[in-house]
């Protein structure tokens, strides 16, 4: 096991800056997930940790040692790629054991090690097969086995599940989580899928345009996002946003929204509310009025799509399906002040100061 530390790490490809001044401390045995939109630099940062790409500036430490100029093969890391990268001409057993062959380990020891790893990953019945004779999920297990057999100090995963269908993704996600529970090895995992990040990570690093927007536990990011980007990226369905006008004591917006609260310092320009924090009520009963455009039935829950104003549509999660006759009609929306996230024009999250005596969500 080993800690990883990135100190002021930047990366340029020509004149294009892809990673900007990243500082990050990952502790021994932690499961850290890099998440962010396509092209934000997740894979580049992971490859800098691996030593597959060198940083343009800054220092990379593994277990406290400066490894900035140490080649990948000597960093004690194992990499699992989205594309599996198996050797097509070798069977599963040789694919898993190949790294040990190159280390000069004897055949009996390799065979024993391969069998134990293959058993752990439930591919011990496939040892004689070639990669082309395996399903996507089996190939990814073999790729993980190949990393595992080397007993690395750090596992690096680059979108390992994105080629798999959703059932298999869920199954493999659980197995990777179990692997981490069993091994307690430091793991860094790249995904663009925020739900994968939420379910796997001890801590999530949210990246955007090569910068860290926020680092925190899944709960911290969900309940206390630092800014609009994190608020909008973490959570499914995405947080509902609305542009508002604000003074230091009052916020008003479309649909008749009035919030008796303000902020000190920066002015609120936008608010956000998560879909599960809103109640659908009769028109006139709520704090806001909107038009119910559509209801999506997912079996165990329903999403109501409510047009607030122009192009602004909020998603409201409801447990009981609203009557179909309401579609196209006005309905009300209710929510507590405590459920409101407020943002400044630069995207920074602001904390609402409710006025003394203001009644919060009297209907709740
Ligand atoms: N070898 C390279 N040469 C030039 N530009 C590169 C190179 N590798 C990556 N980039 C650019 O760096 C940026 C970050 O790429 P990176 O692959 O790290 O993003 P990502 O967040 O992993 O994206 P995705 O989720 O789509 O895989 C992109 O704009 C990409 O085009």
UniProtKB/TrEMBL annotation:
Q: Name one GO molecular function term.
A: hydrolase activity
List, alphabetically, the PANTHER family matched.
Answer: MALTODEXTRIN IMPORT ATP-BINDING PROTEIN MSMX, MALTOSE_MALTODEXTRIN IMPORT ATP-BINDING PROTEIN MALK
Q: What EC number(s) is this enzyme filed under?
A: 3.6.3.-
Q: State where the protein is found.
A: Cell inner membrane
Q: Name one Pfam family in it.
A: TOBE_2
- Which intervals hold domain ABC transporter? 4-234
Protein name (record): Multiple sugar transport system ATP-binding protein
Keywords attached to this Swiss-Prot or TrEMBL record, sorted alphabetically, are: ATP-binding, Cell inner membrane, Cell membrane, Hydrolase, Membrane, Nucleotide-binding, Sugar transport, Transport
Q: How does it sit in the membrane?
A: Peripheral membrane protein
């Amino acid at each position: 096991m080993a800690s990883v530390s990135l100190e002021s790490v930047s990366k340029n490809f020509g004149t294009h800056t892809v990673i900007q001044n990243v500082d990050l401390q990952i502790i021994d045995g932690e499961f850290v997930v890099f998440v962010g939109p396509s092209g934000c630099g997740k894979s580049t940062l992971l490859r800098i940790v691996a030593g597959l790409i060198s940083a343009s500036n800054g220092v990379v430490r593994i277990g406290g040692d400066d490894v900035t100029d140490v080649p990948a093969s000597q960093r004690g890391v194992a990499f699992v790629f989205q594309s599996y990268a198996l050797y097509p001409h070798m069977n599963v057993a040789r694919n898993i054991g190949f790294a040990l062959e190159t280390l000069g380990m004897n055949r009996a020891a390799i065979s024993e090690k391969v069998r134990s790893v293959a058993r752990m990953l439930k591919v011990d019945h496939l040892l004689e097969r070639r990669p082309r004779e395996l399903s996507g999920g089996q190939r990814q297990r073999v790729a993980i086995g190949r990393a595992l057999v080397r007993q690395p100090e750090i596992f690096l995963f680059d979108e390992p599940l994105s080629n798999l269908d959703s059932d298999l993704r869920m199954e493999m996600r659980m197995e990777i989580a179990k692997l981490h529970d069993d091994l307690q090895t430091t793991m860094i995992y790249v995904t663009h899928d925020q739900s994968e990040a939420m379910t796997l990570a001890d801590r999530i690093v949210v990246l955007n345009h090569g910068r860290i927007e926020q680092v925190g536990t899944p709960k911290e990011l969900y309940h206390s996002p630092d800014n609009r980007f994190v608020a909008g990226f973490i959570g499914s369905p995405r947080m509902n946003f609305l542009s508002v006008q604000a003074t230091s004591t009052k916020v008003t917006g479309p649909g008749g929204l009035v919030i008796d609260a303000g902020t000190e310092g920066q002015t609120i320009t936008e608010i956000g509310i998560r879909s599960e924090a809103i109640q659908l009520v009769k028109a006139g009963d709520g704090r806001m009025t909107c038009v119910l455009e559509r209801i999506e039935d997912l079996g165990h829950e329903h999403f109501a799509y409510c047009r607030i104003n122009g192009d602004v549509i909020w998603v409201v999660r409801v447990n009981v399906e609203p009557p179909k006759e309401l579609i196209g009609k006005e309905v009300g929306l209710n929510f507590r002040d405590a459920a409101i996230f407020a943002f400044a024009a630069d995207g920074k999250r602001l904390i609402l100061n409710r006025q003394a005596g203001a009644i919060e969500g009297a209907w709740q």
